[in-house]
Each structure stands twice: as structure tokens, then as C-alpha cells.
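Below is one protein, fold included:
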Amino acid sequence: MVSHAKKKAVDRKILLYLIPTVLLGTSLGARFAGELKSKELKYVFIFFIFVFSIRMLTSSLKKKLKKVPEPANNEFADSHDSEIRKLPILFHNFIGLLIGFSSALVGVGGGVFTSTYMLALRYPIHKAVGTSAAMGFPIAIAGSLSYMWIGWNHSALPKFSLGFVYLPAVAGIVLTSFPFAYLGAKFAHSLSKDTMRFIFASFLFIVGSLMVGSDFF
């Protein structure tokens, strides 16, 4: 979040519209997820992965076939403020509720959902990614606290768990993801918008395929 903000790739205005209902949606999503079996959650996650990855891959392919030229010398040149779709604040609030709910339901930081929404509003890809990174912070706080609360007295949890949050996993992931998030943000701003879309979509598709394959092998 800090790295993207330094590159002026975080839109504070849309964050103010989304965050209040994102927090509410995250709490509701965690509560709903607590009632589902882990296998059901897995397939919900796979569904979202394939929907977004296929959408982004087909979008990139169409642009290549049309041979749309890449804007020169401006990482935010793929869109201008005048081209961004203007929508009522209540609509942003409603989308924020869906982003929070979906993020908590499938256990993600909300980057996929927030960036896809902003791209649909014609925001530049770099600003969509940067704002999505910032959105991950309130989702992480609300989601973690909610999963701790609903899983606090759950039986058969391993040691060193706070509800449904397994602390050794948190520590291991944070130690590596924290420095690499900085490097990833820095690297993202050196890539063109189409390259970013292709890499992200390809990664999502591979992850989804591996998750499906794990049931058969």
C-alpha cells in the first residue's frame, strides 16, 4: 500500500466510498463462511479465480488481435479522469459490500475484486492495482478479527490458533510476503498495462487449475 501510494497509484476518493461497506461485508462474509464446509469454500474460490482469469486473458487477446498501440511515456496514459465512469456513491457502497463479503468468503485480500471493479470504471491498470493493495488493509483487519471471533470455541483446531487464524502460518507468510510485496509493487510500475493484465490472469488460471487437479491426483 505504501509503495503504490508513493507512485501516486492509490485513489483515496474511491477508497472512502468503499471502505465503510467493505468492513461490513467482510464481517458478514466471514460469518457465512464459518457455516460452510472447507470443500465448498474451495470450489467457491476456484469459481472466482476462473471467472476473473478468463475474462482478463480474453480481454488481452482481443487487444492484441486489434493491435491497439501502447501509450508512450505515461504509465497512467491508458485512461484520463474525464473517461472514468461516474457512478452514485450508493452504488460504490453496494459494490464495497460485495467486495468485502466475497473477500472474506474465499479468504483473499480483495485485490482481484477491487481491481476488476476499477478497471470496469476505466481506471488505469496501475491505479486499480495500487488502490486494490490499499483496500487489502481494512479487509485483512476486519476479516482476521471476524474469523478469530467465530472460530474462538471451535473444536479440533490445532495449537497456536486464535479462532480460525493459525498463527504459525501467519508468521511464515508475513516474513516472506512483506518484503516481496514491496518488490512486487516496484516491479509493477515498470511493466506496461497489458503485460500486467496477462501475468496476473495467467497466474490466477494456473492456481485455479492446480486446485482443481488436487482432487484427482
Notes: The first strand starts at residue 161 and ends at 162. The radius of gyration is 18 Å. The beta strands are 161-162, 165-166.
